[in-house]
Amino acid sequence: MSELYAVIGDPIEHSLSPAMHHFWYETYNMDHHYHAFRVKPDNLKDAVRGMKAIGVKGFNITIPHKINIIPLLDSVDDEAQMLGAVNTVVNRGGKLYGYNTDGLGFLLSLKEEVPEILEQNPKVLIIGAGGAARAVGLTLAKHVKLQQLDITNRTMEKARQLSEECTDLTNTRVLSLQEAKDTLPDYDLIINGTSVGLAPHIDQMPMDITPSERKQVFADLIYRPLKTKWLREAEAQGHIILNGLPMLIYQGALAYKHWFGKLPDAKIMQSFLERKMED
Ligand code: ATR
Fold first, then answer.
1. Mean per-residue pLDDT for 171-182?
2. Which of 3, 48, 66, 159 is the most exposed place for a label (fewest CB within 10 A)?
3. What is the pLDDT of residue 25?
4. Is the CB of residue 197 below 6 angstroms from any atom belonging to ligand 1?
């Protein structure tokens, strides 16, 4: 039977989620539909009631609703509760269950793309302390045995808050941008969780890359452009790079799993979305 799935946010017109989920529906011969709805903050409550009323089976939530949707749901799982944000909802018999697959999507992208990094108790630096950086930081702190999780950000106070939230989970410190730059070669994994480098500001990067003797992993949560200046410079210095597209795909794959019970093929999605983004 054909079912309706959705994503709600504002803005929403550039979302890749409809294309991604339709590609999986076609691959697995499912007759479902996934639609992007622009919902303004004042209309969130009505939109969620509408989802229930028309029997939408599941939906994703994106900016700016991930936090404000929580009181509108019947139940929220541990991961979403830790993050204080929901990006996936399942409608089970008229009751709405909230989940968060953002941080776990990043973790799965590491497991699939650079598995060796997780096997060595890595020393990790996160640059940024906004919503995306926070989801990734807390998820790594909770699920990976880290030697160290350092956080730096333009606004130090926000880095301090995130680090404090991680203290019960892992060994964490706050660094100034200058301190982080000076000690950059010490880290196994360095993640740009800021919006610096996002199109159209493609000539910027969150900090200069201090040359290092050994190979490190440089990750970016940005996928537009696919290769930020940060990743281009890291690659030019011989490092391993990971862009934000696998995180986007795996957060979608984990949402799909909440709705249909199993993980879809994420590998086939990569080249499809890369082609789609060129259009
Ligand atoms: P997102 O949901 O993408 O994480 P966000 O919550 O607005 O977006 O967070 C954006 C992050 O990028 C923050 O860490 C922000 O730093 P501040 O906390 O100091 O605002 C960072 N950021 C955005 N523009 C920046 C810039 N021009 N230079 C440095 N950091 C920047």
1. 98
2. 3
3. 98
4. no
